[in-house]
Amino acid sequence: MQLTILGCHSATPRANAHPTSQVLDMNGELMLIDCGEGTQVRLRREKIKFSRIRHIFISHLHGDHYYGLIGLLSTFSLLNRTAELHIHAPQGLEEIIKLQLRVSHAYTSYPLIFHQLDSRKAELILDNDKLSVETIPLSHRVYTNGFLFKAKPGDRKLLIDKVQNLDIDKAYYKSIVKGKDVETRDGRLVRNEDLTADPRPEPSYAFCSDTVFKPDIVPQITGTTLLYHESTFLEEQEHLCEKTKHSTAKQAGIIAQKAGVQKLILGHFSARYKNLSLFEKEAQVVFDNVENAESGKIFRFE
Amino acid sequence: MQLTILGCHSATPRANAHPTSQVLDMNGELMLIDCGEGTQVRLRREKIKFSRIRHIFISHLHGDHYYGLIGLLSTFSLLNRTAELHIHAPQGLEEIIKLQLRVSHAYTSYPLIFHQLDSRKAELILDNDKLSVETIPLSHRVYTNGFLFKAKPGDRKLLIDKVQNLDIDKAYYKSIVKGKDVETRDGRLVRNEDLTADPRPEPSYAFCSDTVFKPDIVPQITGTTLLYHESTFLEEQEHLCEKTKHSTAKQAGIIAQKAGVQKLILGHFSARYKNLSLFEKEAQVVFDNVENAESGKIFRFE
Question: Residues that bind Zn(2+) 1, according to the entry (chains A, B) (predicted)?
Protein backbone atom coordinates (compact mmCIF):
# COMPACT_ATOMS: atom_id res chain seq x y z
CA MET A 1 0.00 0.00 0.00
CA GLN A 2 1.26 3.43 -0.69
CA LEU A 3 0.30 7.06 -0.56
CA THR A 4 1.78 9.39 -3.18
CA ILE A 5 1.69 13.10 -2.44
CA LEU A 6 1.02 15.11 -5.60
CA GLY A 7 0.60 18.43 -3.81
CA CYS A 8 0.40 19.57 -0.20
CA HIS A 9 0.35 23.36 -0.16
CA SER A 10 -2.55 25.61 0.67
CA ALA A 11 -4.25 28.16 -1.54
CA THR A 12 -2.44 29.54 -4.59
CA PRO A 13 -0.41 27.15 -6.74
CA ARG A 14 3.17 28.23 -7.35
CA ALA A 15 5.98 26.71 -9.40
CA ASN A 16 7.09 24.33 -6.65
CA ALA A 17 4.08 24.44 -4.36
CA HIS A 18 1.23 22.36 -5.66
CA PRO A 19 -2.22 22.41 -4.08
CA THR A 20 -3.71 19.39 -2.34
CA SER A 21 -3.87 16.08 -4.18
CA GLN A 22 -2.85 12.57 -3.27
CA VAL A 23 -3.08 9.09 -4.76
CA LEU A 24 -3.76 6.19 -2.43
CA ASP A 25 -3.03 2.65 -3.60
CA MET A 26 -4.78 0.25 -1.23
CA ASN A 27 -4.87 -3.43 -2.12
CA GLY A 28 -4.42 -2.42 -5.75
CA GLU A 29 -7.33 0.02 -5.75
CA LEU A 30 -6.02 3.39 -6.95
CA MET A 31 -7.89 6.42 -5.59
CA LEU A 32 -7.39 10.14 -6.01
CA ILE A 33 -7.96 12.34 -2.97
CA ASP A 34 -8.59 16.02 -3.77
CA CYS A 35 -7.56 17.50 -7.08
CA GLY A 36 -6.13 21.03 -7.03
CA GLU A 37 -5.15 22.84 -10.23
CA GLY A 38 -2.37 21.06 -12.09
CA THR A 39 -3.10 17.61 -10.66
CA GLN A 40 -3.11 15.93 -14.07
CA VAL A 41 0.39 17.19 -14.79
CA ARG A 42 1.51 15.95 -11.37
CA LEU A 43 -0.03 12.52 -12.08
CA ARG A 44 1.94 12.32 -15.31
CA ARG A 45 5.13 13.35 -13.57
CA GLU A 46 4.69 10.57 -11.00
CA LYS A 47 3.93 8.15 -13.87
CA ILE A 48 0.59 7.14 -12.42
CA LYS A 49 -1.61 5.44 -14.96
CA PHE A 50 -4.74 7.57 -15.33
CA SER A 51 -6.92 4.63 -16.30
CA ARG A 52 -6.33 2.85 -12.99
CA ILE A 53 -8.13 5.56 -11.02
CA ARG A 54 -11.75 4.52 -10.46
CA HIS A 55 -12.68 6.69 -7.48
CA ILE A 56 -12.02 10.36 -6.75
CA PHE A 57 -12.74 11.83 -3.32
CA ILE A 58 -13.12 15.60 -2.93
CA SER A 59 -13.02 16.90 0.64
CA HIS A 60 -14.60 20.31 0.03
CA LEU A 61 -15.26 22.90 -2.62
CA HIS A 62 -12.44 25.35 -2.07
CA GLY A 63 -10.54 25.80 -5.30
CA ASP A 64 -7.20 24.51 -4.05
CA HIS A 65 -8.88 21.13 -3.55
CA TYR A 66 -10.81 20.72 -6.81
CA TYR A 67 -9.93 23.22 -9.60
CA GLY A 68 -7.88 20.54 -11.35
CA LEU A 69 -10.79 18.11 -11.59
CA ILE A 70 -12.53 19.38 -14.73
CA GLY A 71 -9.25 19.26 -16.65
CA LEU A 72 -8.55 15.71 -15.50
CA LEU A 73 -12.06 14.56 -16.44
CA SER A 74 -11.66 16.14 -19.90
CA THR A 75 -8.32 14.44 -20.36
CA PHE A 76 -9.86 11.07 -19.48
CA SER A 77 -12.20 11.65 -22.44
CA LEU A 78 -9.36 12.64 -24.76
CA LEU A 79 -7.68 9.38 -23.75
CA ASN A 80 -10.90 7.54 -24.71
CA ARG A 81 -11.55 6.18 -21.24
CA THR A 82 -14.57 3.89 -21.14
CA ALA A 83 -14.47 2.62 -17.53
CA GLU A 84 -16.81 4.08 -14.93
CA LEU A 85 -15.47 6.91 -12.79
CA HIS A 86 -16.94 7.64 -9.37
CA ILE A 87 -16.71 11.08 -7.79
CA HIS A 88 -17.47 11.37 -4.09
CA ALA A 89 -17.91 15.06 -3.33
CA PRO A 90 -20.07 17.67 -1.65
CA GLN A 91 -23.20 19.03 -3.23
CA GLY A 92 -22.42 21.57 -5.94
CA LEU A 93 -19.58 19.81 -7.69
CA GLU A 94 -21.83 17.81 -10.01
CA GLU A 95 -23.52 21.01 -11.18
CA ILE A 96 -20.15 22.73 -11.77
CA ILE A 97 -18.71 19.85 -13.76
CA LYS A 98 -21.82 19.23 -15.83
CA LEU A 99 -22.19 22.92 -16.68
CA GLN A 100 -18.61 23.03 -17.96
CA LEU A 101 -19.04 19.86 -20.01
CA ARG A 102 -22.28 21.25 -21.45
CA VAL A 103 -20.91 24.61 -22.65
CA SER A 104 -18.04 22.89 -24.45
CA HIS A 105 -20.31 20.18 -25.93
CA ALA A 106 -17.83 17.77 -24.39
CA TYR A 107 -19.64 14.87 -22.83
CA THR A 108 -17.43 12.26 -21.23
CA SER A 109 -16.51 9.12 -23.14
CA TYR A 110 -17.15 7.12 -19.94
CA PRO A 111 -19.88 6.88 -17.28
CA LEU A 112 -19.26 9.65 -14.77
CA ILE A 113 -21.07 8.88 -11.52
CA PHE A 114 -21.42 11.43 -8.77
CA HIS A 115 -22.00 10.41 -5.16
CA GLN A 116 -23.13 13.49 -3.31
CA LEU A 117 -21.91 13.93 0.25
CA ASP A 118 -24.10 15.97 2.56
CA SER A 119 -24.21 14.15 5.90
CA ARG A 120 -22.85 15.82 9.02
CA LYS A 121 -22.14 12.37 10.48
CA ALA A 122 -19.55 9.80 9.47
CA GLU A 123 -20.94 7.50 6.81
CA LEU A 124 -19.75 4.51 4.85
CA ILE A 125 -19.44 5.64 1.24
CA LEU A 126 -17.54 2.79 -0.39
CA ASP A 127 -17.28 -0.89 0.51
CA ASN A 128 -15.79 -3.47 -1.81
CA ASP A 129 -13.60 -6.57 -1.48
CA LYS A 130 -10.44 -4.48 -1.20
CA LEU A 131 -11.36 -1.73 1.22
CA SER A 132 -13.98 0.47 2.81
CA VAL A 133 -14.16 4.26 2.94
CA GLU A 134 -15.91 6.36 5.57
CA THR A 135 -16.29 10.12 5.70
CA ILE A 136 -14.73 11.95 8.64
CA PRO A 137 -16.85 15.06 9.31
CA LEU A 138 -14.52 18.06 9.65
CA SER A 139 -15.09 21.68 10.54
CA HIS A 140 -14.03 24.25 7.98
CA ARG A 141 -15.48 27.41 6.40
CA VAL A 142 -17.52 25.29 3.99
CA TYR A 143 -18.94 21.76 4.30
CA THR A 144 -15.91 19.46 4.51
CA ASN A 145 -15.16 15.77 4.98
CA GLY A 146 -12.00 13.87 5.63
CA PHE A 147 -11.87 10.24 4.53
CA LEU A 148 -10.94 7.07 6.40
CA PHE A 149 -9.69 4.25 4.17
CA LYS A 150 -9.57 0.77 5.71
CA ALA A 151 -8.04 -2.15 3.86
CA LYS A 152 -10.03 -5.36 3.94
CA PRO A 153 -8.33 -8.23 5.77
CA GLY A 154 -6.02 -10.27 3.57
CA ASP A 155 -5.50 -14.03 3.70
CA ARG A 156 -5.15 -15.83 7.02
CA LYS A 157 -1.60 -16.78 7.95
CA LEU A 158 -0.78 -20.45 7.25
CA LEU A 159 0.86 -22.25 10.22
CA ILE A 160 3.27 -24.23 8.09
CA ASP A 161 4.42 -26.62 10.87
CA LYS A 162 0.84 -27.65 11.59
CA VAL A 163 -0.15 -28.36 7.97
CA GLN A 164 3.08 -30.28 7.38
CA ASN A 165 2.64 -32.34 10.55
CA LEU A 166 -0.86 -33.27 9.38
CA ASP A 167 0.55 -34.07 5.90
CA ILE A 168 -2.05 -31.92 4.22
CA ASP A 169 -1.70 -31.73 0.44
CA LYS A 170 -0.30 -28.41 -0.80
CA ALA A 171 -3.24 -28.12 -3.18
CA TYR A 172 -5.40 -27.17 -0.16
CA TYR A 173 -3.16 -24.33 1.08
CA LYS A 174 -4.93 -21.72 -1.04
CA SER A 175 -8.36 -22.53 0.37
CA ILE A 176 -6.97 -22.82 3.92
CA VAL A 177 -5.62 -19.24 3.90
CA LYS A 178 -9.05 -18.15 2.66
CA GLY A 179 -10.51 -19.60 5.91
CA LYS A 180 -11.73 -23.04 4.79
CA ASP A 181 -11.57 -26.16 6.97
CA VAL A 182 -9.82 -29.17 5.45
CA GLU A 183 -9.79 -32.97 5.61
CA THR A 184 -6.59 -34.92 6.25
CA ARG A 185 -5.61 -37.83 3.97
CA ASP A 186 -7.19 -40.22 6.51
CA GLY A 187 -10.49 -38.35 6.41
CA ARG A 188 -10.25 -36.36 9.65
CA LEU A 189 -11.78 -32.83 9.56
CA VAL A 190 -9.38 -30.13 10.81
CA ARG A 191 -10.80 -26.74 11.66
CA ASN A 192 -9.27 -23.74 10.00
CA GLU A 193 -8.39 -22.05 13.28
CA ASP A 194 -6.04 -24.94 14.07
CA LEU A 195 -4.12 -24.40 10.81
CA THR A 196 -3.97 -20.63 10.53
CA ALA A 197 -3.40 -17.48 12.51
CA ASP A 198 -5.25 -14.21 12.13
CA PRO A 199 -3.96 -12.10 9.25
CA ARG A 200 -1.81 -9.17 10.26
CA PRO A 201 -3.82 -6.10 11.28
CA GLU A 202 -5.11 -4.28 8.25
CA PRO A 203 -3.61 -0.93 7.44
CA SER A 204 -5.77 2.16 7.34
CA TYR A 205 -5.31 5.73 6.21
CA ALA A 206 -7.07 8.83 7.50
CA PHE A 207 -7.05 12.01 5.40
CA CYS A 208 -8.04 15.10 7.41
CA SER A 209 -7.97 18.38 5.49
CA ASP A 210 -9.09 21.15 5.86
CA THR A 211 -10.22 21.57 9.44
CA VAL A 212 -9.99 23.54 12.61
CA PHE A 213 -8.66 21.54 15.62
CA LYS A 214 -11.41 18.95 16.14
CA PRO A 215 -10.59 16.36 18.82
CA ASP A 216 -13.97 14.68 18.42
CA ILE A 217 -12.63 12.89 15.32
CA VAL A 218 -10.22 10.95 17.58
CA PRO A 219 -12.52 7.95 18.35
CA GLN A 220 -13.14 7.34 14.65
CA ILE A 221 -9.46 7.39 13.66
CA THR A 222 -8.01 5.67 16.73
CA GLY A 223 -5.38 3.10 15.77
CA THR A 224 -5.11 4.32 12.20
CA THR A 225 -1.83 3.34 10.53
CA LEU A 226 -1.25 6.60 8.71
CA LEU A 227 -2.84 9.96 9.47
CA TYR A 228 -2.56 12.97 7.17
CA HIS A 229 -3.64 16.02 9.12
CA GLU A 230 -3.58 19.55 7.83
CA SER A 231 -1.26 22.02 9.53
CA THR A 232 -1.71 25.27 7.71
CA PHE A 233 -0.08 27.26 10.51
CA LEU A 234 2.54 27.07 13.22
CA GLU A 235 1.52 27.70 16.83
CA GLU A 236 2.78 31.28 16.53
CA GLN A 237 -0.13 31.99 14.16
CA GLU A 238 -2.70 29.99 16.15
CA HIS A 239 -4.81 33.14 16.41
CA LEU A 240 -5.55 32.78 12.66
CA CYS A 241 -6.97 29.27 13.08
CA GLU A 242 -10.39 30.16 14.43
CA LYS A 243 -11.20 32.64 11.67
CA THR A 244 -9.78 30.58 8.79
CA LYS A 245 -10.79 27.20 10.31
CA HIS A 246 -7.36 25.66 10.04
CA SER A 247 -5.03 23.83 12.43
CA THR A 248 -1.49 24.21 13.67
CA ALA A 249 1.21 21.55 13.49
CA LYS A 250 1.00 21.13 17.23
CA GLN A 251 -2.76 20.55 17.07
CA ALA A 252 -2.21 17.92 14.37
CA GLY A 253 0.32 16.29 16.71
CA ILE A 254 -2.21 16.25 19.55
CA ILE A 255 -4.79 14.52 17.32
CA ALA A 256 -2.17 11.93 16.29
CA GLN A 257 -1.12 11.35 19.87
CA LYS A 258 -4.67 10.99 21.20
CA ALA A 259 -5.63 8.65 18.36
CA GLY A 260 -2.50 6.54 18.83
CA VAL A 261 -1.79 6.41 15.12
CA GLN A 262 1.44 4.88 13.83
CA LYS A 263 2.56 7.84 11.79
CA LEU A 264 1.49 11.44 11.19
CA ILE A 265 1.95 13.27 7.91
CA LEU A 266 1.65 17.06 7.90
CA GLY A 267 0.54 19.17 4.96
CA HIS A 268 -1.49 22.11 3.60
CA PHE A 269 1.25 24.52 4.56
CA SER A 270 0.57 28.22 4.28
CA ALA A 271 2.70 30.09 1.74
CA ARG A 272 3.93 32.40 4.52
CA TYR A 273 6.44 29.81 5.78
CA LYS A 274 9.80 29.30 4.12
CA ASN A 275 11.25 26.72 6.53
CA LEU A 276 8.79 23.84 6.57
CA SER A 277 10.92 21.71 8.90
CA LEU A 278 9.52 23.85 11.72
CA PHE A 279 6.21 22.03 11.23
CA GLU A 280 7.74 18.62 11.95
CA LYS A 281 9.59 20.01 14.95
CA GLU A 282 6.47 21.59 16.42
CA ALA A 283 4.37 18.42 16.07
CA GLN A 284 7.20 16.25 17.46
CA VAL A 285 6.83 17.94 20.83
CA VAL A 286 3.62 15.94 21.31
CA PHE A 287 3.98 13.07 18.82
CA ASP A 288 7.23 11.49 17.74
CA ASN A 289 6.66 9.77 14.37
CA VAL A 290 5.83 12.73 12.16
CA GLU A 291 6.92 13.65 8.64
CA ASN A 292 6.08 16.49 6.30
CA ALA A 293 4.24 15.78 3.09
CA GLU A 294 6.15 16.87 -0.02
CA SER A 295 5.21 16.78 -3.70
CA GLY A 296 6.40 13.48 -5.12
CA LYS A 297 7.01 11.84 -1.74
CA ILE A 298 5.70 8.28 -1.39
CA PHE A 299 4.67 6.85 1.97
CA ARG A 300 4.63 3.04 1.98
CA PHE A 301 2.73 1.28 4.73
CA GLU A 302 1.56 -2.27 5.49
CA MET B 1 5.27 46.12 -27.21
CA GLN B 2 5.69 42.46 -26.53
CA LEU B 3 3.86 39.18 -26.62
CA THR B 4 4.82 36.54 -24.05
CA ILE B 5 3.81 32.97 -24.78
CA LEU B 6 2.76 31.18 -21.59
CA GLY B 7 1.50 28.06 -23.34
CA CYS B 8 0.90 27.02 -26.93
CA HIS B 9 -0.06 23.36 -26.98
CA SER B 10 -3.46 21.88 -27.70
CA ALA B 11 -5.67 19.80 -25.43
CA THR B 12 -4.15 18.02 -22.42
CA PRO B 13 -1.53 19.84 -20.35
CA ARG B 14 1.70 17.91 -19.84
CA ALA B 15 4.84 18.68 -17.88
CA ASN B 16 6.40 20.73 -20.67
CA ALA B 17 3.41 21.38 -22.89
CA HIS B 18 1.19 24.09 -21.50
CA PRO B 19 -2.22 24.90 -22.98
CA THR B 20 -2.96 28.19 -24.69
CA SER B 21 -2.25 31.42 -22.85
CA GLN B 22 -0.43 34.59 -23.80
CA VAL B 23 0.25 38.00 -22.33
CA LEU B 24 0.22 41.00 -24.64
CA ASP B 25 1.81 44.24 -23.51
CA MET B 26 0.64 47.02 -25.84
CA ASN B 27 1.47 50.61 -24.96
CA GLY B 28 1.78 49.49 -21.34
CA GLU B 29 -1.64 47.85 -21.23
CA LEU B 30 -1.16 44.24 -20.07
CA MET B 31 -3.75 41.78 -21.36
CA LEU B 32 -4.16 38.05 -20.93
CA ILE B 33 -5.36 36.05 -23.96
CA ASP B 34 -6.83 32.64 -23.12
CA CYS B 35 -6.09 30.94 -19.84
CA GLY B 36 -5.56 27.17 -19.92
CA GLU B 37 -4.96 25.15 -16.74
CA GLY B 38 -1.76 26.20 -14.98
CA THR B 39 -1.68 29.73 -16.40
CA GLN B 40 -1.18 31.36 -13.00
CA VAL B 41 1.94 29.27 -12.38
CA ARG B 42 3.21 30.21 -15.85
CA LEU B 43 2.58 33.90 -15.09
CA ARG B 44 4.64 33.60 -11.93
CA ARG B 45 7.44 31.84 -13.75
CA GLU B 46 7.60 34.66 -16.31
CA LYS B 47 7.55 37.16 -13.42
CA ILE B 48 4.51 38.97 -14.79
CA LYS B 49 2.86 41.14 -12.19
CA PHE B 50 -0.69 39.84 -11.71
CA SER B 51 -2.04 43.21 -10.68
CA ARG B 52 -1.12 44.82 -14.02
CA ILE B 53 -3.60 42.63 -15.92
CA ARG B 54 -6.87 44.53 -16.38
CA HIS B 55 -8.40 42.67 -19.32
CA ILE B 56 -8.69 38.96 -20.05
CA PHE B 57 -9.85 37.72 -23.46
CA ILE B 58 -11.15 34.16 -23.82
CA SER B 59 -11.48 32.88 -27.39
CA HIS B 60 -13.81 29.96 -26.72
CA LEU B 61 -15.00 27.59 -24.03
CA HIS B 62 -12.90 24.53 -24.64
CA GLY B 63 -11.05 23.61 -21.49
CA ASP B 64 -7.54 24.07 -22.84
CA HIS B 65 -8.37 27.77 -23.31
CA TYR B 66 -10.03 28.60 -19.98
CA TYR B 67 -9.70 25.96 -17.23
CA GLY B 68 -7.01 28.05 -15.54
CA LEU B 69 -9.22 31.13 -15.22
CA ILE B 70 -11.12 30.30 -12.03
CA GLY B 71 -7.85 29.61 -10.21
CA LEU B 72 -6.35 32.87 -11.39
CA LEU B 73 -9.45 34.84 -10.35
CA SER B 74 -9.34 33.20 -6.90
CA THR B 75 -5.67 34.03 -6.55
CA PHE B 76 -6.38 37.68 -7.39
CA SER B 77 -8.69 37.68 -4.36
CA LEU B 78 -6.11 36.01 -2.13
CA LEU B 79 -3.72 38.77 -3.19
CA ASN B 80 -6.35 41.32 -2.16
CA ARG B 81 -6.75 42.85 -5.60
CA THR B 82 -9.12 45.80 -5.62
CA ALA B 83 -8.83 47.01 -9.24
CA GLU B 84 -11.54 46.18 -11.76
CA LEU B 85 -10.99 43.12 -13.91
CA HIS B 86 -12.72 42.79 -17.29
CA ILE B 87 -13.38 39.39 -18.85
CA HIS B 88 -14.31 39.31 -22.55
CA ALA B 89 -15.65 35.84 -23.27
CA PRO B 90 -18.43 33.84 -24.87
CA GLN B 91 -21.76 33.29 -23.18
CA GLY B 92 -21.53 30.61 -20.50
CA LEU B 93 -18.29 31.62 -18.83
CA GLU B 94 -19.91 34.08 -16.45
CA GLU B 95 -22.30 31.39 -15.22
CA ILE B 96 -19.44 28.90 -14.74
CA ILE B 97 -17.26 31.33 -12.80
CA LYS B 98 -20.06 32.69 -10.63
CA LEU B 99 -21.30 29.20 -9.76
CA GLN B 100 -17.81 28.22 -8.60
CA LEU B 101 -17.40 31.39 -6.55
CA ARG B 102 -20.83 30.83 -4.99
CA VAL B 103 -20.27 27.23 -3.84
CA SER B 104 -17.01 28.20 -2.15
CA HIS B 105 -18.51 31.37 -0.59
CA ALA B 106 -15.56 33.11 -2.23
CA TYR B 107 -16.68 36.36 -3.73
CA THR B 108 -13.95 38.36 -5.40
CA SER B 109 -12.23 41.18 -3.53
CA TYR B 110 -12.47 43.29 -6.73
CA PRO B 111 -15.12 44.20 -9.30
CA LEU B 112 -15.28 41.36 -11.82
CA ILE B 113 -16.93 42.58 -15.01
CA PHE B 114 -18.01 40.19 -17.75
CA HIS B 115 -18.42 41.34 -21.35
CA GLN B 116 -20.35 38.65 -23.14
CA LEU B 117 -19.37 37.93 -26.73
CA ASP B 118 -22.06 36.49 -28.96
CA SER B 119 -21.83 38.31 -32.29
CA ARG B 120 -21.02 36.37 -35.46
CA LYS B 121 -19.53 39.54 -36.95
CA ALA B 122 -16.36 41.40 -36.02
CA GLU B 123 -17.06 43.96 -33.33
CA LEU B 124 -15.11 46.55 -31.43
CA ILE B 125 -14.97 45.36 -27.81
CA LEU B 126 -12.38 47.67 -26.26
CA ASP B 127 -11.27 51.15 -27.18
CA ASN B 128 -9.14 53.30 -24.92
CA ASP B 129 -6.27 55.76 -25.32
CA LYS B 130 -3.71 52.99 -25.69
CA LEU B 131 -5.35 50.54 -28.07
CA SER B 132 -8.47 49.07 -29.56
CA VAL B 133 -9.57 45.43 -29.69
CA GLU B 134 -11.87 43.83 -32.25
CA THR B 135 -13.15 40.28 -32.36
CA ILE B 136 -12.18 38.13 -35.35
CA PRO B 137 -15.02 35.65 -35.93
CA LEU B 138 -13.49 32.17 -36.32
CA SER B 139 -14.97 28.81 -37.18
CA HIS B 140 -14.48 26.03 -34.66
CA ARG B 141 -16.61 23.31 -33.01
CA VAL B 142 -17.99 25.86 -30.55
CA TYR B 143 -18.52 29.63 -30.84
CA THR B 144 -15.02 31.13 -31.14
CA ASN B 145 -13.41 34.53 -31.63
CA GLY B 146 -9.91 35.59 -32.41
CA PHE B 147 -8.86 39.08 -31.33
CA LEU B 148 -7.24 41.93 -33.23
CA PHE B 149 -5.29 44.36 -31.06
CA LYS B 150 -4.36 47.71 -32.61
CA ALA B 151 -2.12 50.17 -30.81
CA LYS B 152 -3.27 53.77 -30.85
CA PRO B 153 -1.03 56.20 -32.73
CA GLY B 154 1.73 57.62 -30.60
CA ASP B 155 3.02 61.22 -30.73
CA ARG B 156 3.63 62.92 -34.08
CA LYS B 157 7.29 63.10 -35.11
CA LEU B 158 8.90 66.50 -34.46
CA LEU B 159 10.79 67.95 -37.46
CA ILE B 160 13.62 69.35 -35.41
CA ASP B 161 15.19 71.44 -38.20
CA LYS B 162 11.89 73.22 -38.83
CA VAL B 163 11.16 74.14 -35.21
CA GLN B 164 14.75 75.31 -34.69
CA ASN B 165 14.69 77.42 -37.86
CA LEU B 166 11.53 79.10 -36.62
CA ASP B 167 13.16 79.56 -33.18
CA ILE B 168 10.20 77.98 -31.40
CA ASP B 169 10.59 77.69 -27.64
CA LYS B 170 11.29 74.16 -26.42
CA ALA B 171 8.41 74.50 -23.96
CA TYR B 172 6.03 74.04 -26.91
CA TYR B 173 7.57 70.81 -28.20
CA LYS B 174 5.31 68.62 -26.04
CA SER B 175 2.12 70.18 -27.36
CA ILE B 176 3.45 70.16 -30.96
CA VAL B 177 3.99 66.38 -30.97
CA LYS B 178 0.45 66.05 -29.66
CA GLY B 179 -0.75 67.81 -32.84
CA LYS B 180 -1.19 71.41 -31.68
CA ASP B 181 -0.41 74.44 -33.89
CA VAL B 182 1.99 77.00 -32.41
CA GLU B 183 2.85 80.73 -32.54
CA THR B 184 6.36 81.95 -33.30
CA ARG B 185 8.02 84.57 -31.06
CA ASP B 186 6.92 87.26 -33.53
CA GLY B 187 3.26 86.15 -33.37
CA ARG B 188 3.00 84.17 -36.60
CA LEU B 189 0.77 81.03 -36.48
CA VAL B 190 2.49 77.87 -37.78
CA ARG B 191 0.35 74.88 -38.61
CA ASN B 192 1.26 71.58 -36.97
CA GLU B 193 1.65 69.75 -40.29
CA ASP B 194 4.56 72.07 -41.12
CA LEU B 195 6.39 71.09 -37.93
CA THR B 196 5.73 67.37 -37.64
CA ALA B 197 5.56 64.17 -39.62
CA ASP B 198 3.04 61.33 -39.16
CA PRO B 199 3.96 58.99 -36.31
CA ARG B 200 5.35 55.64 -37.37
CA PRO B 201 2.69 53.07 -38.34
CA GLU B 202 1.10 51.57 -35.28
CA PRO B 203 1.77 47.92 -34.54
CA SER B 204 -1.06 45.44 -34.35
CA TYR B 205 -1.46 41.86 -33.22
CA ALA B 206 -3.97 39.29 -34.45
CA PHE B 207 -4.65 36.20 -32.34
CA CYS B 208 -6.42 33.44 -34.31
CA SER B 209 -7.09 30.24 -32.37
CA ASP B 210 -8.86 27.82 -32.71
CA THR B 211 -10.19 27.72 -36.25
CA VAL B 212 -10.55 25.76 -39.42
CA PHE B 213 -8.86 27.41 -42.46
CA LYS B 214 -10.90 30.58 -42.91
CA PRO B 215 -9.57 32.91 -45.63
CA ASP B 216 -12.42 35.35 -45.12
CA ILE B 217 -10.57 36.74 -42.07
CA VAL B 218 -7.85 38.07 -44.41
CA PRO B 219 -9.35 41.53 -45.13
CA GLN B 220 -9.69 42.24 -41.40
CA ILE B 221 -6.11 41.29 -40.54
CA THR B 222 -4.39 42.65 -43.66
CA GLY B 223 -1.19 44.49 -42.78
CA THR B 224 -1.10 43.22 -39.21
CA THR B 225 2.35 43.37 -37.66
CA LEU B 226 2.20 40.06 -35.84
CA LEU B 227 -0.20 37.19 -36.54
CA TYR B 228 -0.57 34.19 -34.25
CA HIS B 229 -2.45 31.50 -36.13
CA GLU B 230 -3.20 28.06 -34.85
CA SER B 231 -1.60 25.09 -36.60
CA THR B 232 -2.79 22.05 -34.76
CA PHE B 233 -1.78 19.73 -37.58
CA LEU B 234 0.72 19.29 -40.38
CA GLU B 235 -0.52 18.94 -43.94
CA GLU B 236 -0.16 15.16 -43.69
CA GLN B 237 -3.07 15.17 -41.23
CA GLU B 238 -5.16 17.73 -43.13
CA HIS B 239 -8.00 15.19 -43.30
CA LEU B 240 -8.48 15.72 -39.54
CA CYS B 241 -9.03 19.46 -39.94
CA GLU B 242 -12.61 19.43 -41.17
CA LYS B 243 -13.92 17.22 -38.36
CA THR B 244 -11.93 18.86 -35.56
CA LYS B 245 -12.12 22.36 -37.07
CA HIS B 246 -8.43 23.04 -36.89
CA SER B 247 -5.80 24.28 -39.37
CA THR B 248 -2.48 23.04 -40.72
CA ALA B 249 0.78 24.97 -40.63
CA LYS B 250 0.57 25.45 -44.39
CA GLN B 251 -2.92 26.92 -44.10
CA ALA B 252 -1.66 29.32 -41.41
CA GLY B 253 1.10 30.30 -43.84
CA ILE B 254 -1.43 30.97 -46.59
CA ILE B 255 -3.42 33.26 -44.31
CA ALA B 256 -0.23 35.15 -43.36
CA GLN B 257 0.82 35.46 -46.99
CA LYS B 258 -2.59 36.67 -48.20
CA ALA B 259 -2.86 39.17 -45.33
CA GLY B 260 0.67 40.46 -45.91
CA VAL B 261 1.52 40.39 -42.21
CA GLN B 262 5.05 41.09 -41.05
CA LYS B 263 5.48 37.92 -39.04
CA LEU B 264 3.58 34.70 -38.40
CA ILE B 265 3.69 32.79 -35.12
CA LEU B 266 2.48 29.19 -35.09
CA GLY B 267 0.98 27.38 -32.10
CA HIS B 268 -1.66 25.04 -30.66
CA PHE B 269 0.38 22.04 -31.70
CA SER B 270 -1.19 18.61 -31.39
CA ALA B 271 0.50 16.26 -28.91
CA ARG B 272 1.04 13.74 -31.70
CA TYR B 273 4.06 15.64 -33.05
CA LYS B 274 7.49 15.31 -31.49
CA ASN B 275 9.45 17.46 -33.95
CA LEU B 276 7.79 20.86 -33.94
CA SER B 277 10.30 22.41 -36.35
CA LEU B 278 8.33 20.70 -39.12
CA PHE B 279 5.58 23.28 -38.53
CA GLU B 280 7.89 26.20 -39.32
CA LYS B 281 9.23 24.42 -42.37
CA GLU B 282 5.78 23.66 -43.71
CA ALA B 283 4.54 27.23 -43.34
CA GLN B 284 7.76 28.65 -44.81
CA VAL B 285 6.91 27.14 -48.18
CA VAL B 286 4.24 29.86 -48.55
CA PHE B 287 5.37 32.54 -46.07
CA ASP B 288 8.93 33.29 -45.09
CA ASN B 289 8.90 35.08 -41.74
CA VAL B 290 7.45 32.41 -39.48
CA GLU B 291 8.39 31.22 -36.00
CA ASN B 292 6.94 28.65 -33.62
CA ALA B 293 5.45 29.77 -30.35
CA GLU B 294 7.12 28.24 -27.31
CA SER B 295 6.36 28.55 -23.60
CA GLY B 296 8.36 31.44 -22.24
CA LYS B 297 9.25 32.89 -25.64
CA ILE B 298 8.85 36.66 -25.97
CA PHE B 299 8.09 38.34 -29.31
CA ARG B 300 8.96 42.02 -29.31
CA PHE B 301 7.46 44.24 -32.01
CA GLU B 302 7.18 47.93 -32.75
Answer: 60, 62, 140, 210
